[in-house]
Amino acid sequence: MDNAYDGLVEDGSEERHWAFGTGFTEALTGVDRAVPPLVDHDDLAAYCLMLGDDALVLAQRLAEWCSRAPELEEDVALANIALDLLGQARMLLTRAAEVEGVGRDEDELAYLRDEREFRNVRLAEIDCGPGPGGDFGTTIARLLVFSSWRLALFQRLTGSLDPVLSAAAAKGVKELAYHRDHAAQWVLRLAGGTEYSRERIVAGLALVWAYTEELYVTHPVEAALADAGVGVDPAALRAEVDDVLDTVLRAAGLDRPEVRQVAALAGQAGRDGVHTEAMGYLLAELQHVARSMPGAHW
Amino acid sequence: MDLEREFDRVVAADHRVEPRDWMPDGYRSTLIRQIAQHAHSEIIGMQPEGNWISRAPSLRRKAILLAKVQDEAGHGLYLYAAAETLGADRAELTEKLISGRQKYSSIFNYPTLTFADVGVIGWLVDGAAICNQVPLCRTSYGPYARAMIRVCKEESFHQRQGYELLMTMMGGTKQQRDLVQDAVNRWWWPSLMMFGPPDAESSNTEQSMHWRIKRHTNDELRQRFVDMSVPQAVKLGVTFPDPKLVWNDERGHYDFGEIDWAEFWRVVKGDGPCNAQRVAHRRQAHEDGAWVREAAAAYAAKKNSEAVA
């Protein structure tokens, strides 16, 4: 045996595709990438950034759990969810860059934009643990709200006139249904487990609930693209998401949290690039290596 | 005695010993120790590379790295499951890890200082692990051998990803090439130590070879790793920090310098740069998660009693 790993390579070829690892970049093979007629390119790029940033920022947060989860199975599950969201982010940022048409790519959008240029909702960026801002209960509470909202959005987005958004949404729907189910099962366990775990999930839901109003505020770009049959007006999601969340809370024997919403700044929030103070630190960590070595190849 | 003779026959014939088969107590305890240490290594091994997930400099590298560290959690799970087929309990094994009573691979007691370390760990550390682990796919205990087939396939994937990252970095800027060489300099000797002490000083080797738990000696595997790695280094354009590393025509192998065994034993005994940090991290995660595991167990118990009622 000259090479210990020769016997492990089943196809025996020297191709390079192994380096893709997770196959995200191959997900939309064969999809028509032309922008539909009459759709404003700037609006579509901005919209893809919004949905892409939501996924990128929450993936960054969820990956913080890696090697820190309450049990190994949960470590694997949270990494899976983070990987799904990272995959969604890559498809959407790639689409944003392509539609924008000034030669940027997914990495320039992820690594070289500043805080004010990020378009994610604030719910995605807040520290819900394992850092000091939260714990497993808060993480699960956010995942329940976020995935319920995004699943409702992506279900509608499968009908988008933009073939890339439609295909990305179709892939995402399956993933998000699993994320929502995973979160809902944990809400039931934590609410019905011990007295302490019930306190933690109640506190977690209260914390994240303060960022829920923002999920249903329609940005002008979202309104324009909803009219064009390309995007989804988030205001239209409220009844359905409320219903899903109420169902889970009822099954868990929990009340819907009654908390004051975190205010927008002069009417502006995440979709306008107005974030919480946590966002700058998150981006500093995300972007540090990429920014400190201009011209490097990765 | 018939049982023992049957066990010896199965092992000598290169057949597999299965969980319900009779086996000597020493065989069982040796396997539990080895499989548990292997599982612990996978779990502790999540930390050095996990250190770079949040800062990976491209989205593709971030996805690859997160998937890789996730695979390590999965490997830990299969291996703990294999240990459980021998009567061990995962919670007890975890207790032994976080209380320092059971060891894991010393390689993870070194820090990852730059993103190049991610690539070098894939290439050299996973490469050394594969050399150690490929023969375990034919180890005499069935569940361990079968777990190792899947582990080795994924490790092989990781190793190639690491090498591909280094190739890309070597094709980048001078600063990137310097980072790669620096990381190689730091990881080369610890990688050679991964094969364990020299055969003359390896207390467990002989019995484990007899039971066909181990199939090659530490020094044989180390030599194989050196022989494989040198041409890969040449192709990559890096050097190993060993002036005595030269081809020996007579032996048909590379000669290499003396490993610093004093350092090896220091790190094994707890005095490496990251020993305390790695165990503390694992203990913290385990303790922080206790209330969640208790909640899940309490919930399951309630559901069971409801189902009975």
From TrEMBL, chain A:
InterPro entries: Aromatic_CoA_ox/epox, Ferritin-like, Ferritin-like_SF, PaaA_PaaC, PaaC. It comes from Actinokineospora auranticolor. It holds the Pfam family PaaA_PaaC. GO terms for cellular component: cytosol. It comes from the Bacteria. GO terms for biological process: phenylacetate catabolic process. This is Ring-1,2-phenylacetyl-CoA epoxidase subunit PaaC.
TrEMBL record, chain B:
It holds the Pfam family PaaA_PaaC. GO terms for biological process: phenylacetate catabolic process. GO terms for molecular function: phenylacetyl-CoA 1,2-epoxidase activity. One of its GO terms (cellular component) is cytosol. InterPro entries: Aromatic_CoA_ox/epox, Ferritin-like, Ferritin-like_SF, PaaA, PaaA_PaaC. NCBIfam families: PA_CoA_Oxy1. This is Ring-1,2-phenylacetyl-CoA epoxidase subunit PaaA. It comes from Actinokineospora auranticolor.
